[in-house]
Amino acid sequence: MATFQSLPGFREFYPDDLSRRKHIFDLWRRTAHAFGFAEYDAPVLEPLELYKAKSGDEIEAQLFSFTDKGGREVALRPEMTPTVCRLVGARASALKRPIKWFSIAEFYRYERMQKGRGRCFFQFNADIFGEPGPEAEIELIALLTQCLAAFGLTEQDFHVRLSDRNLWFYYLEALGLDEPRIRAVLGAVDRFEKYGDDAFKGYTEQFGELEAGVKAKVLAFLQIKTLAALEATLATLGSEKLVARLADWRKLLAGLEAMGLARFIAVDLGVVRGLAYYTGFVFEAFDRKGELRALAGGGRYDDLVEKLGGPALPAVGFAIGDMTFALLLEQRGLMPAFVQAPDVYCVIGGEAGRRAAFADIHALRAAGHRVDYPMKEVAFGKQFKAAADSGAKLALIYGDDELAKGVVKIRDLTDRTEHEVPRDQAVAAVRDFFSAG
RNA sequence: GCGGUCAUAGCUCAGUUGGUUAGAGCACAAGAUUGUGAAUCUUGGGGUCGCGGGUUCGAGUCCCGUUGGCCGCCCCA
Q1: pTM, rounded to two decimals
Q2: Which nucleotides of strand B lie within 7 A of protein CB?
Q3: How much is the ipTM here?
Q4: What are the tens digits of pLDDT across the range A64-99?
Q5: Residue A248 CA to B64 C1' — how many Å?
């Protein structure tokens, strides 16, 4: 047993593990580029105050925070949103609109580990700044959907639950609740799925029993699954805000439908996403079976850039975590096992063969081919087995027979055919093979 | 921060009411095999049985503590 182990909740990526992680990141990155998002990165270590300003002092308990040698209070980043708000805010007036950015980065939270949650994890973050209308939500929800569907997941596997904090606010306002009561009701809504009626305990303690008629309307609102039902419920209230908001809903859903994504979208007002800084549409992606924690979450946060010291700038964003997502891919058999295979494996007999091979090996590598060979003298039989095991497409054979004839034997490891080429043409032959394939 | 549960080789695990030198499969390595691929056979390396203490003539096994994993609660940006 090793004397030292990794810190609790931290992960180590052996090559097999890293290949799986890379597969996920590569596809996320390619998808984001396809949607016209630009990649950025930023420091892992940030001033503690950045997170306190966004989330309140209590957040420190959940952070890897400490005082550095210069006496600065710092924290490992637990999320990207405050950082990207700072980056965008600092250059808001110089950046071309719309600002569509993404990142793939590691985050740290001082928390107890659970299935799909550790103390360090990666997130794909995507945000759009400067666009106040639902066009931004269309773009982001489409990106989120494709970031999951790109791996072969279908509407059988996941869906995106769509809700709206504004709609809740206007609705409860129309029902006659004041702001503190609205917040308490939203807190209950957030917990209702898990706790049922007990979710309203907090409200009752604060304000007394919620009036039965209002509560019935809240519970009915939670059951709504379609835009039509939403419109029917809200039409009677005569609130201008609600009318305007419903127009946004129609635009958002129509846009997603036109992209062919309606099958992934579920109108579900049970999603509230904490009570933190969201100011409009909020959405979360879940596995359909409901066995895992959320795959992704996001929403609109129009006030945050300004709150963190930038200009007033509307924003929408979401993040996908790597842990739950990897679990889902494994569950559905969609996580391919990758091996790092060379293009070419050299089979070498004797010192003279080795010298001849080395010249070609280095030339091929310099030309960008992946080339491997046995470091020590090994029986030919084993070398061929090693060549096959390596996953290489070609074997180059440098044995006494070939040297005597001044050739290199090239074996196609896929169809098991072989032919000889003059020594000085071996590099060109390999190049031709791969450029043709 | 709280609760449940587990910890034996790189991995998956066996190990009897406590008994003397802790095992298997897989993986890895060497050989059979210095000219051709998933086979077979032989052999080998690798363990302070998570760590510390206790009970006992004797502890992988029983007791206490501790660390860590997993699962859940709180929280979830």
Answers
A1: 0.93
A2: 1-2, 10, 30-38, 47-48, 50-51, 67-77
A3: 0.88
A4: 999 999 999 999 999 999 999 999 999 999 999 999
A5: 64
